[in-house]
Amino acid sequence: MTAPSLAPAGFAASEVSVRFGGLVALDRVSLEVRPGEVHGVIGPNGAGKTTLLNVCCGFQRPDAGELSWRGAPLRRLRPHHLAGVGIARTLQGVGLFAGLTVAENVMVGADRHRRTGFVSALFGLPRADADQRALAERARAALAELGVDEVADRPPASLPYPVRKRVALARALAAEPELLLLDEPASGLGADEMTELGELIRRLTGRMSIVLVEHHMDLVMDVCDRITVLDFGRVVASGEPADIRDNPAVADAYLGEEAEHG
Ligand SMILES: Nc1ncnc2c1ncn2[C@@H]1O[C@H](COP(=O)(O)OP(=O)(O)OP(=O)(O)O)[C@@H](O)[C@H]1O
Ligand SMILES: [Mg+2]
């Protein structure tokens, strides 16, 4: 008999450690993202936030620790499996392909429901027309949701930074993920754009769980249900926004940063 699984229904990273040579980037970090929740991950520069997202999506293999997703262990996750298991992410910065149009970039993200995609791409076989049409339609819908469908045929480099950020988010949404990992989606945005981003994130919770890595505290406090705070690769606090705001360990982590950089 097998023991009943204790894995939660959402996403969980349990006791994850990552070392880069002598540097401990993550030290037994645990994170639980409940279904439909926005979970913030904050901490000073170099705290390990991006490394944690990289582990969550299989870009970085942890030296120790476990992941689980939808009640089952998530092992041997590779970047090309991501869309198929319902996970999508954005990169810190923008990370669009310069040689592709906006629509093509987003179609790469939308390539989740393909029946023939991966194998046919491998052997250079043509994709079924119906699959191709469905893919194009999901890409168009994602661009429309972000209000950038009119730039579909443009190369990303021709667009202002905030528009490129929207395209990058559309690419992640086009995969129709159930877990969305966002690495500093508000960087480089103005106040109004940030408000719109916050509204979008809250709207998305009806369809997916979200991990939000962000430095903009107002946004984090407004949109997150719970927050995990990292400092030097360790969890120094976790809880609801009000608890995090008043937690002296969090202030200490950021004060250390100011002393270093300011
Ligand atoms: N591939 C790598 N090789 C070596 N060291 C790395 C690598 N990636 C990250 N690091 C180091 O690991 C630590 C955590 O980096 P990480 O990028 O996860 O921090 P972060 O919290 O995302 O920071 P920021 O807020 O600046 O984006 C840093 O000290 C960083 O220099
Ligand atoms: Mg980072």
Task: Give a structural overview.
This protein is α/β, with parallel strands linked by helices and 262 residues long. It has two domains: 1-86 and 177-262, Rossmann fold (3-Layer(aba) Sandwich); 101-175, no CATH class. The protein has ten helices and ten strands. Strands 6-7-8-3-9-10 form a six-stranded mixed sheet, sandwiched between helices. The chain has a four-stranded antiparallel sheet with strand order 2-1-4-5, covered by helices on one side. Strand 1 and strand 2 form a beta hairpin. Helix 3 crosses helix 5 and helix 3 (102-110) runs parallel beside helix 6. The longest helix has 17 residues, at 129-145. The relative contact order is 0.18. The mean pLDDT is 88. Residues 49-50, 92 line the site of magnesium ion (MG).
Q: Largest sheet, described in full? A: 6 strands, mixed
Class from secondary-structure proportions: alpha/beta
Strand elements, count: 10
CATH architectural name of the largest domain: 3-Layer(aba) Sandwich
| Mean pLDDT score | 88
Proportion in β-strands: 15-25%
Ranges where pLDDT stays below 50 over 5 or more residues in a row are none
Taking Cα atoms only, what radius of gyration do you get, to the nearest Å?
19 Å
Distance between the termini: 59 Å
What is the CATH homology-level superfamily of the largest domain?
A: P-loop containing nucleotide triphosphate hydrolases
**What is the overall shape?**
globular
* Strand line-up across the major sheet: 6-7-8-3-9-10
**Domain unit count:** 2
Number of helices: 10
- Small molecules in complex: adenosine-5'-triphosphate, magnesium ion
